Amino acid sequence: MPAPLRLSFLGVTHPHAAAWADAARDDPETEVVAVYDHDADAATAFAATYGADRVARAGEALAAADAVVVDGRNDEAVPFATLAVEAGLPVFIEKTGARAAAELVGLAASAREAGVVTQMGYFMRYSDSVVATAEALASGELGRVGLARFHAAIPHQAWTSMAHWFADASNVVTPFMEAGCHLVDVVRLLLGEPDDVTATSVRWAGTTSPAEDALAATMRVGDTVVVIDFTAHEASPWNIAWGGELYGDAATRTFGVTPARTSVGTGDHVATVDAPVDLTDADAVRDRMAQENTELMRRGMRAFADAVRGRTPSPVDATSGARTLELIEDVLRAAATPGVRRRD
């Protein structure tokens, strides 16, 4: 086995930073060696947790590394990732990767020109149910798919427990961009790029949300109508309701991202359900989701190590990340466009 890939973290204040570092620590092919963050206290605590050096300058972190993980605020992502690219180091970039698609487009172009590997931190694409759905689409199992619906959400309680992140308008552009980006990545993975987009949204009075509180987008992807709906105030906990439904003329397939479950209907009144846990057992579901979240991060980190070592291409590079942000910006622009009003 080759020596572990030495990873330096530039930025560690993103809510996912610890999970990615856990994945790196758990994998014999990667190790966290250095940490830099503008917040010295955050960097010191993070470095202590992972047995890494807390360095005073970003350049020291770059000098210690074979590759870089960028996992701070959204407004830090492109500046930190640019440092890695300029140093010729492969870089793993936490989602959203930027506050604007154009910033990530520019970074992706620089990385391509420099021949530097990039990977985005989109982990829901590694869910067993997403992978199985992609295989079902590729095999033609569903027949001709006329409609696909997808759902994502932020739990309402997150506006209390994670207000420092989601309510900070200098960090989060909109809730849909911040959280819904995961599912937009999945939609693009499964179905490709939309031909056109329409959308609508609502903004509630009295919330701390920096933008929309709920949103729905309708897109056309070839011969398929695709709907993504999103709420920033769902009663359910994180990720439990995330998933999609694909309606084909041969089969209907429903999937939940985590626990990674599917159901397939082919004309009978009862669909065939495949679930890794008893979905009526709350404790079992909670434990399974925690296990799967850990595994999804491990898969993403191993994919990055494989891409850096030249074994496989990056599954979701900065160019793809920029395309996801471009689609989100198209949705937000469409939502700001007045719809057709009903006649009196």
From TrEMBL:
Residues 14-122 form the Gfo/Idh/MocA-like oxidoreductase N-terminal domain. The keyword NAD applies. The keyword NAD applies. One of its GO terms (molecular function) is nucleotide binding. InterPro entries: Gfo/Idh/MocA-like_OxRdtase_N, Gfo/Idh/MocA_oxidoreduct, GFO_IDH_MocA-like_dom, NAD(P)-bd_dom_sf. Pfam families: GFO_IDH_MocA, GFO_IDH_MocA_C3. Keywords: NAD, Oxidoreductase. Belongs to the Gfo/Idh/MocA family. PANTHER family: CONSERVED EXPRESSED OXIDOREDUCTASE (EUROFUNG), CONSERVED EXPRESSED OXIDOREDUCTASE (EUROFUNG)-RELATED. This is Oxidoreductase domain protein.
